[in-house]
């Protein structure tokens, strides 16, 4: 049988120390480029395959970071994963992405499966308030996007950011408004609704005659379309909304699709606002007005904390920003 090539063989072939080879394998930036090239050439010539499992036993983790999201088909989570992957790669780490499918029991299975890879850290977007797994002592776990009880969370101020959407509709003259909330089984769904309700109370206290109808949905296109058909098919007159605020962009795009099928002009007869600013928001027609989550800033803050090995408990909450496009206009 052929002899297994070891890290010592690579070091001897490249005429460097074993430590230098190890630093090259971990993509340590302190290794000068000519030296790194020599080591990589030796690795290629000898056909060396790093034993990541053995390295993990010594270093307590393999150079990977875990990301567990509720729904990998949700464009917002895809964009977040893409940003995190780039940031992890720049630090010599790979990102392993897994989905809980919005199921707490499956989330527990997937979380434990990620732990088997001995990651440096796990970023968790919780499926619900119910956590059916124990947090590990040896692996850093941060909450991401959605507040996670007991975990430091990186995301936006959900309440204050959601309130921006309702204020924008009212500033445009809309008084008959429907808010399609996200599932109340999630903290995000509840906090965004709380923000909208608090803004509605403040506006009424300021003397604005606002009629706000709240409907609960799920974070997907079909939910927006189904609820929009119901509220837009109501009796004629004041009960039909002139503005719809959605808990995320997928819901909002579903609303726009329903309005189009019902021959209701957006924004001429109906203004629509989403939340997240996924890539699709600027591609649909009309282009969607939305509350932008600063994905780059959130991902960067979380990744910086992981590699700085921060132990502080304070959440990192950014503020969303109104991104006005073509799906809203002044109420005629």
Automatic annotation (TrEMBL):
InterPro entries assigned: HTH_LacI (IPR000843), LacI/GalR-like_sensor (IPR046335), Lambda_DNA-bd_dom_sf (IPR010982), Peripla_BP_I (IPR028082)
SMART domains: HTH_LACI
Highest taxon in the source lineage: Bacteria
Keyword NAD in annotation: no
DNA-binding among keywords: yes
Domain HTH lacI-type: 5-59
Alphabetical keyword list: DNA-binding, Transcription, Transcription regulation
One Gene Ontology term of the molecular function aspect: DNA-binding transcription factor activity
Full protein name: Glucose-resistance amylase regulator
